[in-house]
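Section handout 9: paired folding examples.
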Amino acid sequence: MTNDQMLSRVPEEQRKLRANDREFNRSFRYATNSIKTSKYNLFTFLPLNLFEQFQRIANAYFLILLVLQLIPDISSLSWFTTVVPLVLVLSVTAAKDAIDDIWMDVQVGDIIKLENNQFVTADLLLLSSSEPLNLVYIETAELDGETNLKVKQALTVTGDMGDSIKDLAAFNGEVCCEPPNNRLDRFTGTLTFTGQKYALDNERILLRGCTIRNTDWCFGLVIFGGQETKLMQNCGKTIFKRTSIDHLMNVLVLCIFGFLAISCSILAIGNRIWEQQEGSTFTAFLPRQDGVNAPFSAFLTFWSYVIILNTVVPISLYVSVEIIRLGNSYYIDWDRKMYHARSDTPAEARTTTLNEELGQIKYIFSDKTGTLTQNIMVFNKCSINGKCYGDVLDYTGQRLEITEQTDSVDFSFNQLADPKFMFYDQSLVEAVKLENTEVHAFFRLLALCHTVMAEEKNEGDLLYQAQSPDEGALVTAARNFGFVFRSRTPESVSIVEMGVQRCYQLLAILDFNNVRKRMSVIVRSPDGKLTLYCKGADTIIYERLHLSCSKLMEVTTEHLNEFAGDGLRTLALAYKNLDEEYFREWKERHHEASTSLEDREEKLDLLYEEIEKDLMLLGATAIEDKLQDGVAHTIEQLAKADIKIWVLTGDKQETAENIGYSCNMLREEMNDIFIVAANTPEGVREKLSSRHFLEHPITFLLSRHARSTMKPDSAEDELLCKMLQGDSPKVVPDESVTGEYGFVINGQSLAYALEPTMELEFLRTACMCKTVICCRVTPLQKAQVVELVKKYKKAVTLAIGDGANDVSMIKAAHIGVGISGQEGMQAVLSSDYSFAQFRFLQRLLLVHGRWSYLRMCNFLRYFFYKNFTFTFMHFWYAFFCGFSAQTVYDEWFITLYNLVYTALPVLGMSLFDQDVSDSWSFEYPQLYVPGQLNLYFSKTAFMKCALHSCYSSLVLFFIPYGAIYDTVKNDGKDIADYQSFALLVQTCLLVAVCIQLGLDMSYWTAVNHVFVWGSLAMYFIVTFTMHSNGMYLTFTSSFPHIGTARNSLSQPNVWLTILLTSILCVLPVLTHRFLLIQLQPTVNDKVRLKVRQMKAAPPPPPRRIRMRRTSSRRSAYAFSHAQGYGDLVTSGRFLHRQVKPRSTGFTPTGRTLNFSPAGRSAGYSPTAQNQNSKGDLEPTALQMYRTKQPSY
């Protein structure tokens, strides 16, 4: 049974399978683990591939022509004139499609072995592993984009089998579980074995797409295979992307077919008239066949001319287009300037069909984290007990800019410190050494409240595996400041506090999720105190603080605002001392809720809310997610190219805004920045009341006030009236505004804006702004925004991202670009192009994209010109041959014209031509604009090309006709025969189209010279060969033009005719281009003139000095999108091996260890106050803010 048959049967309600029993499992007809990446096998390849190819209109058209050519009464051309190019096209395409990829052959119920670093090829129930407690460490980057390791554990009953092949082969457990589905985070089922039933959840399952890490071996039972795996269930339908030129070509081909039908009809009518008036005089020596009269002759003539004029749609066009696209794709792959050496990642064109679309991008939709930023988090600043740390101050208290020359903090007192960690504020280290109670409590929380796993291969060499980069940065910061997270067991967390090993009993983990936006741990200290430590988004923590923290909260809020001005990600920290009796009672209720089979999550959330109240604020952290190199410059360049960039991010509004300022998308000098941050329709109406738009309250989301500010005369325009009447336009035109504006909207407001009744208003407002930032958006909303712009704007879109949550918008956009960064490879695997850094996007678009578009447009214009000119000659000749469907050229010239004589020159132009160099393309990004406006190839350009071809064909036919009419050679012999005329016409044609190619080409290379001159030489060599005596004697019927070439081309008047026709063909072109450059020069003309004047490369761009910005905008901490694995930490199933006693790795410090402070710690103070004596210290700010001294 095929996979398609399997998918078409009735959906499962429940899956049952038995280990090591294929007969039992086969009765359910489950999918095998076979995954096919093509549609063919050895036997079906030829028929299916041909069937697919002939579904293309052009191929089917040429097949019909071939059939017509096999009818003697219709065809005046030999069959090979169509068979040769058709077979060539079908063969090239078939070779391209002949790819197949099949995975290993396993079936549901089989037990398979996996080893370290192997790819999991099916959804497996983990049975046993090499690690203690039957653990397996996996990397899920291909599933969810996260590179941190996750842990799975087998049931004890199956883990006891170990790697015993005998026991594994005898295992006959039965699994009853959920049917195939696409939920990656959940699995429900049971295992029945030896009369016992065991519960199965997601912690026992290894999903296809994971990679085994740090585990020597493991065994698993196949639950789902092939198309039924959760990975394959999540593979949404991939949209077949086609360029705007492809769509235009389809329209033009249909128009050409219509033109062909009209032309053939005209010639058929001409044949009937000629047969009635003149044909009877020829019947004496050209008798008609029986039953053939004038009307029937016209009918046959129609189909004969369909065959002759078929070159208006040459089949070689499609082959040439594919070769050009393939060549330009290789240029991207080979571009060393898009290679990222640090990660050893080259740029990759993952498709060959969209290159020219890169030169027409109008809208870019970009993720923020990992795309604009590095997604490498650095602990930058913090606020502890109302005091801000992280800035470097001079002697006057002014903040200094941190540079590479700034001295960093010396952590040599801590032998367990991370040498890569950098911090510059000495006062925080001094506070730690002085045993400041609040500072110690701050870092103790960071060392305890997390789900990080530590690995220590060598003494003191710690490696943290964190659920998110933010969490890893916080634990690393605590490590360097003397609170080192060293190891953990299911019941405890071991840390080193200022050189002293301490073990905290881990009683509960209240894990993070997207709703809670916080996590907490409950621990018992070595001295027996119960404490809840909590960290989370500042707004969430503030709602749960004790009233006594109000003053401290105000001060901390000021610091948070300052952190936001620097574009930092923030997190608030708090704690709560717990009563022993209350916690015992709460723990019992927690156990009941955690083992409940119904509404487990809801019950746990209520318990978490209950205990996470009346918290005491400790402070806040500020983490920097640095911009990638060159982001600001790239955005500036793309903006000059009139490309609009919309940022779609899951981060909070304040964070997104400040990144917008950091990369110059938002600027203080903008006329205005419109912010829409309403959470409910009622909130929107409240805002509208101040705007006097009560009659349409919801439209404030779409900001008619914003539109009236940007363009006062647009409030009641025609488009708005149509929208209010429910008449939605198909295309929303661009609207020009005075000034520059920004537009920021959050996810909840965006949900309203994307409703059908408001989407047009939102789109108009956003498109009038220079910058658009959508924050707190879901992956689905990202795709919806892209689809909205595609729906109503006649523009090409590009989406760029680096994570699994960007896949939907990457697939939705015309072009999808994946960044291979810290969030796995799923975005790359779904993309059309990929590279390692956002800055490479400007080279992809401004250089490769623009060149590809320019080359393709030049190719199409020239290709249609040369073929229309070639075909029109047959049309004019029909009026001189009695509309008899005789060809003006010999058959071999017709066959080789597109395949040999003109193929390489036009390919050379299409692969190597460039109007200006890459450096000049960067110097003048405005060169990109014509591509957005479709100026190089459009319906208008096509009509101009057709008219040009018509003129050239008239010159190339009638000038030779007049020159050879009643002409004799030098010896008085007649030269005006059909064969001589055919030779003269085809020679004039080939020379003229080669000259036209030279005029169209801007950049001559050695390859271009070889192709052009070589093709002309090939023509004369082949012509003389075919007209030779030897070919005539060998193949008399195929080569009847004996001696024509040497007789005709030896006459001076023939060469004069060739020269005259060439001059007359190119003279109007030169005149037209000269006048346009003088009267209406394009930006391309101006830049090329400047290049010629300078005769050198452009000057290097000026250095940009980044100005520091101050702002009151808030930023926020961004958690991982996935739920944490706190349950696993406390379950006793994650441990690698028993922790051995280790040295603390600390140099004795602190007063309790005879520490001698230095610097400000030793008593120096700008205010000359003694800071050494503990008894003389003033009450801390925390003691002043709080009603009583807490106990840690």
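Moving on to protein 2 of 2.
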Amino acid sequence: MSSLSRELVFLILQFLEEEKFKETVHRLEQESGFYFNMRYFEEMVTNGEWDEVEKYLSGFTKVDDNRYSMKIFFEIRKQKYLEALDKRDRAKAVEILVKDLKVFAAFNEELFKEITQLLTLENFRDNEQLSKYGDTKSARGIMLGELKKLIEANPLFRDKLQFPTLKNSRLRTLINQSLNWQHQLCKNPRPNPDIKTLFVDHSCGQPNGARAPSPVTSSLMGGVPKSGGFPPIAGHGPFQPTPAALPSTLSGWMAHPSASAHPSASAGPLGLAPNNPAAIIKRPRTPPANNLGIDYQTADSEHVLKRPRPFGLSDEVNLPINIMPITYTSQNHGQNSYSSDDLPKNPVMALNQGSAVKSMDFHPVQQILLLVGTNMGDVMVWELGSRERIAWKNFKVWDLNARSRALQASLSNDYTASVNRVAWSPDGTLFGVAYSKHIMHIYSYNGGDDIRNHLEMDAHNGNVNDLAFAYPNKQLVVVTCGDDRTIRVWDAIVGTRLFNLVGHDAPVYSVCPHHKENIQFIFSTATDGKIKAWLYDNTGSRVDYDAPGHSSTTMAYSADGTRLFSCGTNKEGESHLVEWNETEGAVKRNYNGLAKRSVGVVKFDTTKNRFLAAGDEFMIKFWDMDNNNLLTSIDAEGGLPASPCIRFNKEGTLLAVSTNDNSIKILANSDGMRLLRTVESRTFDASRAASAAVVKAPAIGNFPPANATVGTSIDNQTAPAAPMVGMNSDNRSLVDVKPKIQDESVEKSRIWKLTEINEPSQCRSLRLPDSLTAMRVSRLIFTNSGGAILALASNAVHKLWKWQRNDRNLTGKATASVLPQLWQPSSGILMTNDISDTNPEDAVPCFALSKNDSYVMSASGGKISLFNMMTFKTMTTFMAPPPAATFLAFHPQDNNIIAIGMEDSSIQIYNVRVDEVKTKLKGHQKRITGLAFSHSLNVLVSSGADSQLCVWSTDAWEKQASKFLQIPTGRAVSSLADTHSSLIFAVMSSHGHYAYSEIVSQISINIFSMGDFVIKAPDIHSTKLLRVYPLVIAAHPSEPDQFALGLTDGGIHVFEPLESEGKWGTSPPVENGAGPSTASGAAGSEQAQR
């Protein structure tokens, strides 16, 4: 809710209080959550109205919001419980214990047991801690003092305990000022206006005695049947001096001044759209000299009341088209003949994309061409008739030296970027790509696979969140917006920046250029829910509005440009799909049917001037534009993410939708299916066929693509349109991988055969589906139950994948054979860490799960946070840097003991219960990069940025062993080592007999026997991979041969040995004198000695 809307609530609260609507006052306080009335709260507590106390509190906080809230509810329920015991009403006490107090057992089981034992006492005061409990009145007084302290300390009540200072009857005053303003604008103002209603704008009668249709009154008495009334209008008087001329203003969006019709003034906020659809700017004329009145301007008057510079522009025109359009003549339906059967609801094909779809756009002329951008930065054009990817570009900065230092620094740390938006120009000869890192690309498209670099620009500092083409002044421009809170307008032909529009206070989320007659303008929306409108100049925004629900919003017009819609989702997961009344700048229609708590931002589109569609709740939902209620919904035969990306073609006959397995489904109606059949039957010319034959696929790493069908070997999968290529982007055949013997100076009986894995077919692997923003994976862990994976990204946001128990996965545990689900609670909130003053990209994140998977401790360079894994809510934060925590691990036998690796290279053994550091372990020279407890060996293994592994006894907390890891002999250092330090990460296998370790600079995964630090097997490495590489590694808690990797592109892969292998590593050859492979190195040695 905007600040003005919030202030309006306070004005209403003041009015209700003055009019003695006491119950309504407190109900509004609770429902709005803006003002916590401590006096009213004290009265309820003193009177023991416990149900009303909790009901009132529920408007401001819930039990599990934070530790303060939990303590507040606990004290109230405990007091209610003790009072029932004091009255000897044991049945009531038991009811309170079961219904109200049991919820706290999960947080402090011992305390709950102690409370339960009070039932066994004749008098609960026999309990030592309650021996000083007095009578009910004094006990409530003591508790009330404690509650007030907790409420004042609770951050959720911040700025809600003081009512703003207002003059008496402030709302009445504003209404009278509005009436004065309306009266001042009357064409023939009367000296004593007869005001009878507030429901319509005031207008004085005509000179001939005819009455205006909306009579208004000067006396507001009786408007509310209570004492007090409004002050008379003369008190604020239309009969006081006023400036002779009225400043120009933007009231609504459309309308030119007219000599015959006077524009009406609205008492509401400035509008978004026109009274007259034929124009955009409305300028109230100067009132007559004999019409005296007061110019009541708001605090924003100077910003808003600017005379816009008119444009002498013709209607929007299209440039010549050099592409022969593919057309299909369908029936010409009248608007009233549309039905839900006209919607494209039938799946006709699936396009194997390979990475998560971020944005799509159909070609405006050739409607079977689909432009797609992905989270890997890839951009491609699909031809739906042939189901081929006919053109493709991966993310690459064309001229890095010419780019900004900020972009160069960002790419030096992580040479990846996600596509945020792709869009065709109106004639389809160009298309633009907005990336997550600073830049925008514009490509020229000449048909077939002919894509050429056109313009590369440092568009914004940070994310370029959106772009759109427009034609102001017959000049093709591209409008962009970004995290730097600006909107910029660029010449799309030469790349010159034409305008820099500044005024948003938060990152700008989307832009929507449009025109009405000869006036061109731009809508922009920001992540704080603000909507602004701009002309093509540098004089500031013309309108400042709030999106419904204060959401990140996208705006779009119907195809004929006459109706404006928006759809957005706020941080709480509330989504709003609305139509705007452009005349009044208010919501005209709110469409029902979106989820109360959406996962991700809901995306929508319009078609045929008749229908709306949105991706929500793993479905596609459709609305008739003229009906608030949901028309229909489809799941497209399943496989959709929670908030899929959707896009109609121009005629609305085809609909593209993203899927969970990183593919695209194409849906069609009957006209769309005929269009595709017509295209499929066409004969392609020789040049077109030749160009399609040489289309190259994007570089595919050694890890399988995200949309890979799960199986024992990915070689068995259906190949994409183009052959798989190596990590260095060449398409030469990959050589067979030959096993080699690790060169270690140990006795032959203890030498294991080292297997290098370079091919996906050498192990079973699975990439987890991800519909959220892709950011590099900073930390990764399996839950202790083994049924889920938790990841922490570089933007301090956590992601959780859960495997469901079903016929394909009877155990419900993590496996590389079944796709899991990216999970979020119904609230739609994300677990986000406190971030220090440093850049999140530079912070060292860490986290650890509690033994029962109910809580996660986490940090991203700032304070350590405690999250509830079921609700994703933050329970508390503690231990601010410096030094910052860089790794966390719970003790396997005692959840109160946490090992905290620090930035200063020490390891702190921290006791949560007593809030103190038990001991400090010192042995590393650089920051701690990993910690893992062995369940069976009673040791703690630590890894550091010094490339050292240390083993510590958990009994005496003494170092037992250490080893510096080095790059294996004979392997050259990858060029990647020039830009990435030799970080290592280590995790223990579930049986504690060996550890997985990773050297980032070499991108090498080693498995060590814990008995003697001998490399067991395998050595998984990918030195050819440049753009994407693993950063973190995690071991399954109960499957010792399963582990997961987190990559720089945000991808997460799960690895298992092939079923034929059963476990990592193979038996040593006979000539080495080794026996059969066993579970550990030590066991292997004993076998050989026999």
